[in-house]
Specification:
The complex is a heterodimer of chains A (about 775) and B (about 160). Chain A is of the alpha+beta class. Chain A has three domains: about 220 residues, Aldehyde Oxidoreductase, domain 4, CATH 3.30.365.10; about 160 residues, Aldehyde oxidase/xanthine dehydrogenase, molybdopterin binding domain (Aldehyde Oxidoreductase, domain 4, 2-Layer Sandwich), CATH 3.30.365.10; about 350 residues, Aldehyde oxidase/xanthine dehydrogenase, molybdopterin binding domain (Aldehyde Oxidoreductase, domain 4), CATH 3.30.365. Chain A contains 21 helices and 28 strands. A seven-stranded mixed β-sheet of chain A has the order 9-10-7-17-14-15-16, sandwiched between helices. A five-stranded mixed β-sheet of chain A has the order 12-20-19-18-13, with helices on both faces. Chain A has a four-stranded mixed β-sheet with strand order 23-24-25-28. The longest helix of chain A has 28 residues. By secondary structure, chain B is α+β, with helices and mostly antiparallel strands. Chain B has two domains: about 70 residues, Beta-grasp domain (Ubiquitin-like (UB roll), Roll), CATH 3.10.20; about 70 residues, Orthogonal Bundle (DNA polymerase, domain 1). Chain B contains six helices and five strands. A five-stranded mixed β-sheet of chain B has the order 2-1-5-3-4, sandwiched between helices. In chain B, strand 1 and strand 2 form a beta hairpin. Chain B is globular, with a radius of gyration of 15 Å. Classes of the chains: A alpha+beta (about 775), B alpha+beta (about 160). Chains A and B meet through helix 8, helix 10, helix 20 and strand 28 of A and helix 1, helix 3, helix 4, helix 5 and helix 6 of B.
């Protein structure tokens, strides 16, 4: 196998870079030659698999991710003669602010002046940078500490270089705002002056690093650092996947099978080729089931501009087969899910004796909740540009998973992974859609069909809505028993939804531990008799990850049902919910049947009901829970624990005489542990509120005759300014201590929004919404 | 060959006249700040100004833009109001992914130039053609009010 090249991904000319951008492999070789490996005893010079070996066999967090983490400053930091510090961001930016927040962590520990920092995006290369799958709300959770060490190690090297130049003990110097100061004399040397010498020094051993104390932070936890790409975004200079432009580039769109599993039977490109600007029409192969990350196949139209490609596609005549899913119909399927939910299914958690407790209960309450398929509808639809030169394929793509793109493109083009380069552009939204490399493979295949010419493959909005990896569709059936004091004594939850695993193994009919662990088996309720069942559900389309995933239907059902129980018990919803959660305690998730625990250690990340109680109490206080509201208005509460973060929401709604819904205000309390960039945490939670409102009030993808019904934003509607909550107040709870483990931020804000809204609607109108989206269910005839 | 006046300068475009302005800007002139989102005037990502009016470039054929002053996100900073809007967007940290923000900024600038003190209802009306999937609406409203000098009532 060919050895990987050391790709110079830094754009500054090599002469000016002194803490050099040497690959791990080259670095190892250099160090071995000079004998410094042993002398310095670098613990981090092993491959990631060998590094970070925990004592016990179980791996958690970043250790358990493909290619783990890397904290070598020589990989992430470069300093130029003029003092410009370049910091590599290896996670994809899709609006969560990671290109600001992670480099900011490095800069803080490095004592770099943020105004002299440039951020460079890493290409896909997990061996070099550690895991790059930007999903699961874990970029900061997994890379906060490695990036702190990167900064601290680089700072130590600069200090050592200065001390050597002054011939003084290193403890007599300190790095401070982009220079090293000799404390006794006040002499200074700038980072640019020191970089060359510092680069020649060994990287200090991890255990010798001095990390800053929280009081010393300049940027971390302050929330004062502006968005790194802000200026480029507001001036139109920011480059997304859709914006890539290469010399002599061609443009392509693909007509894909309308029904998942369908194929091209025959096609006629005669009219398409007459469209001015159309260059070529090629057939792309379809893939056998399972869907996996494979492209869907179809007919590609390649043209001299995007519009010509789109017009050419319209002129194609294609006869499609429907395949095995040609009768998928969302109305009928809902009936199938309901039927499954009304019969016993696979037991996935069983505490006490639910049947006996239900029989003895004073009051029994049951309800079914339906949540439909959703499409991510990133404002930037999927797009990728590929070219192949002398057996090397180069890709530019808006992707959440650049290493996966490399691996899959290599497989499809029959190249070594080392011969595939994936440059990561900004993402115009991701939400899980861009974790799937199907469109990137399409671009590579089309470039290959054009003899390696650069081709930009774009998806139109129709393509995006028809061929997403859809959020699942679910029926959640809940039944509970209350004793004569109104206490919940029995809880039976049947969750029925096609699983994401069906996308990778077609006969899967049950949810995976990762789906069940999203709020359904790990409900932290102090109910003695509690059973969760998972009846079978067959998938008829590609099911994928959508921001916060199965937490959406689970939280909608459970948090709505708790409000229904409180009403049945004639109790205040907040008090009832707190009683259901019970006293503050730290629960081992394994005792709840949750073996997954978001991939995190059950010791470091127990289910902490004290923190859950605290967000509920906080949001109730801040939102004025119980305050008097005019007729037609109401407050609704919901809480949810996901991505190891605790969230509670109070929504205020108003429903007018025509049944029109407005949302004057949403309060959200969030406990995500230590807050690295509170400003971007707030923006993520604000955005999660809007996405939650959107899916609760409008979002639905439905199928008829196997194909998606919705075409564009007229029938797949999203919340706009006029229907958005007028005010979102985010209340961030301080962490108990700064060293506490971090929680996720990007996703956990979404799940509690829909139930909070529906509970508020109930408070305002007495009408209970059990089917999403709300759409016109409140309209008066 | 068609000549378009974009951001105060003439540009030659060699595309069929029914080609939407969006693709002339993006594919031929390299002005990629104007975004594609839906292709049917439903999302506002492609908002440009035609003679000062906010217009969806994805449905305006080149022929309809000839002879008009076209301003895109790349040129809006030359306008005093446009510059203030861009600055407010940065100061208040409006963008998340940022993809829709050029269109939002074009819509907001057109609103503020025509109505320097917009009410909440005015803002709703002017901005509801522009979708933001990240959900930055509250900050967009705050930024518009900041430019307008309207004090937000703080809780």
């Amino acid at each position: 196998m060919k050895k990987p090249l050391d790709r110079p991904e830094l754009t500054a000319d090599d002469d000016s870079l002194f803490i050099a951008n040497i690959s791990r492999r080259a670095f190892l070789k250099d160090m071995a030659l000079t004998g410094l490996v042993l002398a310095a005893g670098f613990p981090n010079l092993a491959w990631p698999d060998e590094a970070a070996q925990p004592a016990q066999p179980e791996k958690y967090g970043a250790d358990a991710m493909p290619h783990g983490w890397v904290d070598n400053p020589l990989v992430f930091v470069a300093i130029a003669k003029d003092g410009t510090v370049t910091i590599i961001c290896h996670r994809s930016e899709m609006g969560q602010g990671i290109r600001t927040s992670l480099p900011m962590v490095v800069a803080d520990e490095l004592e770099a002046d943020w105004t002299r920092v440039r951020v460079e995006q890493a290409p896909g290369d997990e061996v070099r940078y550690g895991n790059q799958d930007t999903d699961g709300s874990r970029s900061m959770r997994h890379f906060f500490m490695p990036m702190r060490r990167v900064g601290a190690a680089a700072r130590a090297m600069l200090e050592a270089a200065a001390a050597a130049q002054w011939r003084v003990p290193v403890q007599d110097v300190r790095a401070e705002r982009h220079q090293v100061v000799h404390t006794a004399t006040g002499r200074t040397l700038g980072y640019g002056q020191l970089a060359k010498a510092a680069a020649k020094l060994p990287v200090p051993a991890r255990e010798t690093l001095r990390l800053k104390k929280p009081a010393e932070f300049r940027y971390i936890s302050k929330g004062k650092t502006g968005i790194y790409d802000g200026q480029d975004i507001v001036t139109g200079r920011a480059q997304y996947g859709f914006d890539t432009h290469l010399k002599d580039m061609l443009y392509a769109v693909v007509a894909r099978p309308p029904v998942f599993g369908g194929k091209v039977l025959s096609y006629n490109a005669k009219e398409a080729l007459k469209v001015p600007g159309v260059v070529k029409v090629v057939e792309l192969p379809s893939s056998p089931a399972p869907a996996d990350f494979n492209p869907l196949g179809g007919i590609a139209v390649i043209a001299r501009n995007t519009w010509a490609a789109i017009q050419g596609r319209k002129a194609l005549k294609i006869d499609w087969s429907k395949g095995p899913h040609g009768s998928y119909d969302s109305v009928a399927y809902k009936g199938e899910l309901e039927a499954a939910a009304r019969k016993p299914g696979k037991v996935v958690r069983n505490d006490g004796d639910v049947d006996a407790a239900l029989k003895d209960a004073d009051t029994r309450v049951e309800a079914e909740y339906y949540a439909p398929h959703l499409a991510h509808a990133t404002m930037e639809p999927p797009a990728a540009t590929a070219r192949i030169v002398k057996g090397n394929c180069e890709i530019w793509a808006c992707t959440q998973a650049p290493q996966l793109c490399r691996e899959r493109v290599a497989k499809w083009l029959n190249l070594s992974v080392d011969n595939v380069t994936v440059h990561v552009t900004l993402l115009g939204g991701g939400f899980g859609r861009k974790s799937m490399p199907d469109y990137v493979i399409e671009a590579a295949l089309i470039s290959q069909a054009m003899n390696g010419k650069p081709v930009k493959l774009v998806w139109t909005r129709e393509d995006d809505l028809h061929h997403a990896y859809f959020h699942t569709v679910s029926v959640e059936r809940l039944e509970a028993g209350l004793d004569d004091d109104g206490n919940a004594v029995a809880w039976l939850h049947r969750t029925v939804a096609p699983s994401i695993s069906s996308t990778f193994a077609p006969d899967t009919k049950h949810q995976m531990p990762v789906e069940l662990g999203m709020g359904v088996i790990n409900v932290p309720f102090a109910i003695p008799n509690l059973r969760v069942e998972n009846p079978e559900a067959e998938a008829h389309t590609r099911i994928g990850w959508f921001r916060s995933v199965s937490n959406i239907p689970h939280a909608f059902a459970i948090q709505s049902f708790v409000a229904e129980l409180a009403a049945a018990a004639e109790r205040d919803h907040k008090d009832f919910l707190l009683d259901l959660i019970g006293p503050a305690r730290r629960i081992d998730p394994r005792t709840l049947g949750d073996t997954w625990n978001q991939g995190e250690s059950p010791e470091a990340y127990p289910v902490d009901t004290g923190r859950l109680r605290r967000v509920i109490e906080t949001v109730a206080r801040e939102a004025g829970w119980g305050r008097a509201l005019p007729k037609g208005s109401g407050l609704g509460l919901a809480s949810h624990y996901s991505f190891v973060t605790y969230v509670a929401v109070v929504a205020e709604v108003a429903v007018n005489e025509d049944g029109e819904l407005s949302i004057p205000r949403i309060d959200v309390a969030v406990d995500c542990g230590p807050q690295v960039n509170p400003e971007r945490i707030r923006s993520q939670i604000e955005g999660a509120c809007i996405m939650g409102v959107s899916l609760a009030t409008l979002g639905e993808i439905s199928f008829k005759d196997g194909a998606v019904v919705q075409e564009n934003f007229h029938d797949y509607q999203l919340t706009r300014m006029d229907n958005a909550p007028r005010e979102v107040r985010v209340h961030l709870l301080p962490a108990a201590e700064f060293d506490a483990p971090l929680g996720g931020v990007g996703e956990p804000g979404v799940p509690p929004i829909a139930p909070a809204l529906c509970n508020a609607i109930f408070a305002a109108t007495g009408q209970r919404i059990r089917q999403l989206p709300i759409r016109d269910q409140l309209r008066k005839a | 060959m068609t000549t378009l006046n974009i951001n105060g300068k003439p540009h030659k475009v060699d595309l069929p006249e029914d080609t939407p302005l969006l693709w002339a800007l993006r594919d031929q002139l390299g002005l990629t700040g104007t975004k594609f989102g839906c292709g049917m005037a439903m999302c506002g990502a492609c908002t440009v100004h035609l003679d000062g009016k906010p217009t969806f470039a994805c449905v305006v054929p080149i022929s309809a833009a000839v002879g008009k002053q076209i301003v895109t996100i790349e040129g809006i900073g030359q306008d005093a109001t446009g510059k203030k809007v861009q600055e407010a967007w940065v100061t208040l940290g409006v963008p998340q992914c940022g993809y829709c923000q050029p269109g939002q900024i074009m819509a907001a600038t057109a609103l503020l130039k025509q109505n320097p003190k917009p009410s909440d209802a005015d803002i709703d009306k002017a901005m509801s053609g522009n979708i933001c999937r990240c959900g930055t609406y509250c900050r967009i409203r705050a930024a518009i009010k900041q430019v307008a000098g309207i004090a937000e009532v703080q809780p």
